Amino acid sequence: WSVLVSVICSPQNYPLYIRSVPTENELKFHYTVHTSLDVVDEKISAMGKALVDQRELYLGLLYPTEDYKVYGYVTNSKVKFVMVVDSSNTALRDNEIRSMFRKLHNSYTDIMCNPFYNPGDRIHSRAFDNMVNSMMMQVC
């Protein structure tokens, strides 16, 4: 597993979806994601109105640690996507991370279009889980 955590957070920074592998370090990953949300908010406020004018929502590398790299993406509606990637995987390029975020965003949009989904609720979808799992495994 190269992608260790995939998270979707609401504009108010509460998690809508969390998927982490392996699960034994899950609490550590939750902490990493929550600290990265501060960096996402800083980048959004630094961009200000430029973010609205941009079509590129990929924030890039938020911060690297010794073991992980944390990447961010934000939608026009301020929903935040965060991915934690294993630092030892040097084969993973920036454009691959960007395309994974786009794929995640497209699947999230499909969830939002479901008339039975209430915006702001946690995401419980087997199809979405399968997409995230395949995305996390295909990078290996």
Shape: globular
Unreliable stretches, pLDDT < 50, 5 or more residues? none
Helical/strand content category: alpha+beta
Beta percentage is: 15-25%
The whole-number mean of residue pLDDT values reads 85
- How many β-strand stretches? 5
Question: Number of folding domains?
Answer: 1
| CATH class label | Alpha Beta
* Rounded radius of gyration (Å): 14 Å
Measured as a percent range, the helix fraction is 40-55%
CATH architecture, by name, is: 2-Layer Sandwich
* H and E string: EEHHEEEHH
Largest sheet at a glance?
5 strands, antiparallel
> What is the number of helices?
4
Report on this structure.
Keywords: Cytoplasm, Endoplasmic reticulum, ER-Golgi transport, Golgi apparatus, Transport. It is found in: Cytoplasm, Perinuclear region; Endoplasmic reticulum; Golgi apparatus. The chain has helices spanning 26-47, 49-53, 94-112, 126-138; strands spanning 3-9, 15-20, 58-64, 68-74, 80-86. The mean pLDDT is 85. It is α+β, with helices and mostly antiparallel strands. The longest helix is centred in the N-terminal third of the chain and has 22 residues, at 26-47. The protein contains 4 helices and 5 strands, in the order E-E-H-H-E-E-E-H-H. It has one domain (7-139): Beta-Lactamase, CATH 3.30.450. Strand 3 (58-64) and strand 4 (68-74) form a beta hairpin.
